[in-house]
Predict the structure of Non-specific serine/threonine protein kinase protein.
Amino acid sequence: MEVVGILLKLDEMMQLKQVKQQFRVLLWILMVELATSATVDSFIFNNGFTGTKLILNGIASITENGVLRLTNDTEQSTGHAIYPTPFHFVQPSTGKAISFSTTFVFAMIPQDPVYYGHGMAFFISPTTNFSTAMASQWLGLFNVNDNGDSSDHIVAIELDTILNHEFDIDSNHLGIDINNLKSNLSHHAGYFDDYTGDFRNLSLVSGEPMQVWVEYDGGEMKLNVTISPIQMQKPKRPLLSLVVNLSSILLDPMFIGFASSTGTVVASHNLLGWSFKMNGTAEALNLSALPSLPEAVLLNEKGKRWYLTTLLPVVVSVVLFIGIVVFIIFMLRRINFSNLLEDWELQYGPHRFSYKTLVIATNGFNDKFILGAGGFGRVYKGVLLKCNTEIAVKKVSHESKQGMTEFVSEIITLGQLRHRNLVRLLGYCRHKDELLLVYEFMRNGSLDKFLYHQDKPTLNWAQRFHIIKGVASGIEYLHQNSVKAVIHRDIKTSNVLLDSELNGRLSDFGLARLCDHNTDPTTTKVAGTLGYIAPELSRTGRPTTLTDVFAFGVLMLEVACGRKPINPYKEEANQISLMDWVAENWQKGTILDTIDSRLEVEGYIVCEIELVLKLGLLCSHPLPESRPSMRQVVQYLNGDTQLPPLSLAYLSFRVLALQQNAGIDLYPISGTIDSFVQSSDQPSEIIAEPYSDEGFRCRV
Ligand SMILES: *[C@@H]1O[C@H](CO)[C@@H](O)[C@H](O)[C@H]1NC(C)=O
Ligand SMILES: *[C@@H]1O[C@H](CO)[C@@H](O)[C@H](O)[C@H]1NC(C)=O
Ligand SMILES: *[C@@H]1O[C@H](CO)[C@@H](O)[C@H](O)[C@H]1NC(C)=O
Ligand SMILES: *[C@@H]1O[C@H](CO)[C@@H](O)[C@H](O)[C@H]1NC(C)=O
């Protein structure tokens, strides 16, 4: 019995042990089951990646503040971050791919706003070993050989930022890649507005955090990808929606993670948060809990730096350039079309023309419209379009101070003077170094042309006499009638213009000086034209009304004889000086021999011619006090007063001079005399000296 009892006990004990063993095995299996199901189902990284057991490959790292940095600014690099445990994407019983869902927040920070890295991808892969995957366009997922190989069993969602013509639609897109970087479906980055349905572009490399959702519905075999800026709710309409049977692609188990690459251009690809769930919807990320990018500050700095180094200088230079251009245009306009204002200009303001008006009037100072070139500058013909008035515009260069003085003088003089035998100054304009005087247009040009140019018709005596009387009246007005006595100082045939009715009109008051009545005119520079300069003027340099009378006397002889005051190339020595020649003939009683051969001399005309010749001699008397005043001249010409006989002293002086010096004396002869304007700079060319008891002699 005892033996049977021991055996039973032993059997009992054995059975218990077995049960226990069985129990233990069951328990272990249970525990393993529990453990695996608890860890593999889902995860969320909401507060950064610090301390997580993610597998990091390549240059992937976790920054101090918990950002998962897949790549930094290292060129030609890859970076991977892989969840350490694989997931069962396939239902063992049916072999069907299970639904899954993941969402993540990323930020791509370009090193440079123009050039940046290749992008990143979320992937599902049977392996954690990407050592053979390549950088740049291969995104750290494939290489030249295994791209497109169905044995890869890789499903990826690419966020591609560089256009690679082999694979890509553009340089800013999302794509669903199955074993191949050539996406099965891709779309320009952006989202569809929930309300309007409009597509809104996003820039993946903006540096701004963006959220992506990747969801697979195992039942419908539909893979949806959605992206939106971080501030937004998930858009209802996915960006990508692809029906794909992942059962054949996904193995069991599979790892999930991110891959990223840089090329010769770089960007840091960052992951801020990540949530994943098998067979359900991934837990939503608490966006306010995400780690902040260290570059948030840095980026601003970079941006600022970029603004400072690139944008700012460009903007500044553009602004400067525009400013300078505007300034130049403004200045040009100022210089061109308005001019410096001076006291006297204000006084005579109404006469002012704008430069623009004159440019238009003269066809841009076209050479075709040059009327002549005087001692001061060119004269252009113009038409004032507004009133259809013909004008003459005299361009006076005033680079020299002298020119300016003369200009002002002329303006003031003319501003005050109105006489039918004076060329009226309509206005003026100042432009840069030029002064422009606007005159009435004198259709017939200057008197000297009629006297000496073959192409002009010969003036008959009546016309000549009318001109002489007109000019005399004009000079008289200057000397007597105006508020201030004006000495013309440059009376000569080329300064007498003829209007359409052949009235003589004095022009070119450039040398005129104002001087008060009855006061001795201040000594001024000797100026005038040789042949017309009174002997005492060259000696004293003092222009007076009587020096004007002298010049007018010469002019009268010129008009009557049709000869220049000095004819240096005349073979007959006594004909070199017109005055001497006339005087000589007058003395011989052959004065009519001197008159212009083109004139038909008949009847009473002879008296007029004689009057003019004698008056001419009287006016050009070497002694100023023997000359008549312009008032007297006008009276003689009008026949109001009888011309007194010429003094014997005058004649004897003349004849003596002729006999002694063969008649060359009163007028210096050298160079181009009739166009030569004597200025104070060459006073030595004329030496006047007292001669005998009552006359003067002028020598070269
Ligand atoms: C990029 O990251 C790697 C690995 O963390 C590091 O060795 C390298 O210095 C970093 N390069 C730059 C440019 O930040
Ligand atoms: C979005 O980007 C694409 C490609 O650059 C462009 O063709 C399209 O006009 C853009 N759309 C909007 C709304 O900006
Ligand atoms: C999906 O692919 C698996 C494996 O190739 C196959 O067995 C299954 O029939 C496919 N399902 C559909 C709906 O085509
Ligand atoms: C989200 O994160 C913030 C900051 O960590 C926290 O204050 C807030 O309670 C969180 N919200 C939720 C719904 O968890």
User: Anything to note?
Assistant: The longest helix spans residues 294-337. The longest strand covers residues 267-278. The chain has two domains: 42-292, 442-699. The chain has a mean pLDDT of 79.
